[in-house]
Amino acid sequence: MSLAVKARRDKRAVPDPQALLDWYDRHRRVLPWRARKGERTDAYRVWLSEIMLQQTTVKTVAPYYARFLARFPTVAALAQAPLDDVLKAWAGLGYYARARNLHACAFAVAQQHGGEFPDTEDALRALPGIGAYTAAAIAAIAFDRRASPVDGNIERVIARLFAVEDALPGGKPRIRALAEQLTPQHRAGDFAQAMMDLGATICTPKKAACVLCPWCEPCAARARGDQDTFPRKAAKSTGTLRRGAAFVAIRADGKLLTRQRPERGLLGGMTEVPGTEWSKDFDARTALGATPLDAAWRKLPGTVTHTFTHFPLELAVYVAKVARSTKAPRGSRWLALDEVNGAAFPNVMRKVIAHAIEIEPERPR
After folding, report:
1. CA–CA distance, 44 with 57 (Å, rounded to integer)
2. Around 47, how many Cα atoms within 13 Å sit in the side-chain half-sphere?
């Protein structure tokens, strides 16, 4: 059913894309990665921002984006950089598979496309780490292709505009189809960004400012008065709690024992302190059988907790101070404590280290 037919049946005005574009021309947000009026849009900056903004807020991303862009100003610079440097620059943003895919994608663009991003959704989707949403966002914003990216903000706008009752994630296909019908032939990039801005500043998750919305009149949810209940969401599972132990060994010369996680899997390629597997069946009584060094280990009071996308984690932390002459086990290395901030530690490991150094272990004799 077309939007016009649906609107006539509901006796409401048809959502007018031009009304939103007019609003956007007056109220568009100034963002570090967004081209200003009259400037040429840089596909590299669009791509970088879209990858960083996945599962992360604009406020959090902005400083990381600035530092990352200063370190890797072009896709060629990113492609040539060692993966470890990329992971270090990414550390703290979480969802580290994004950083690995970012590096792989930059290499593919440099090798397969001469350092220039392709301008079609199909070609973009063939690149590592670029899915349907990111491909549509780059195609629309960087190349003004008629594409319809649907992020969380746009999802909320569409769900309210048409009172989509299907609960997420099941309702996503219908929301995408409605967004595609709305997307105009011209200024598709501005339209996509206008939808994002509308959701971020007016059609917010709670207490939407409907009276300021350019689509207030045709919005079905506003007419019903239950706009804040959209989009509908299915009950979310938090996953099964996993437990484990982390071992923080500090050498007498102020160096920390570290190792690199496997390239594939959760937190792939990141730096960590040694530890046990994380399991729902973890038995704390066996923890000391997995220590990386023969030392006087002691368990710290309390635990370190962290929540990943699919499960919560609880870690017991053991510490030991060892002699300066202690060799690192195979696959591990000693890292100076003053280098920890610049290393590619995920947030959970930073929590472990912070927890450990709050209580200074006894010095070895």
Report:
1. 19
2. 30
Cα 317 from Cα 328, distance rounded (Å): 19
Please list, in sequence order, all residues whose beta carbon lies within 8 angstroms of the beta carbon of residue 322, skipping any fewer than 6 positions away.
Answer: 249, 250, 251, 252, 293, 295, 364
Residue 194 near residue 21, CB atoms below 8 Å: yes
Q: Which two tokens stand for residue 186?
A: 């011209």
pTM greater than 0.90: no
> Among all residues, which ones are annotated catalytic?
50
Where are the chain's structural domains? 3-229, 242-357
188 contacts: CB under 8 Å, gap ≥ 6 = 140, 144, 145, 146, 147, 148
The three-class DSSP label of residue 113 is coil
Q: Is 278:349 a contact under the CB 8 Å cutoff?
A: no
The CA distance from 215 to 191, in Å, is 13
Concatenate the DSSP letters of all residues of 235-295 into one string. PPP----EEEEEEEEEETTSEEEEEEPPSSSTTTT-EE--B---BTT--GGGGGGG-SSSS
Instruction: Return all residues near 233 (Cβ < 8 A) that are at least 6 apart.
Output: 167, 168
Rounded to whole angstroms, the Cα distance separating 269 from 150 reads: 30
Residue with tokens 């932390």: 317
Residues 223-274: pLDDT tens digits?
A: 999 999 999 998 877 799 999 999 999 999 999 999 999 988 899 889 999 9
What is the third-level CATH fold of 3-229? Endonuclease III; domain 1 (1.10.340)
275-317 residue pLDDT tens: 999 999 999 999 999 999 999 999 999 999 999 988 999 999 9
| 280, 238 contact by CB (below 8 A) | no
Is the Cβ–Cβ distance between 303 and 314 less than 8 Å? yes
CATH topology of domain 242-357: Nucleoside Triphosphate Pyrophosphohydrolase (3.90.79)
Encoding tokens for residue 209?
């400012």
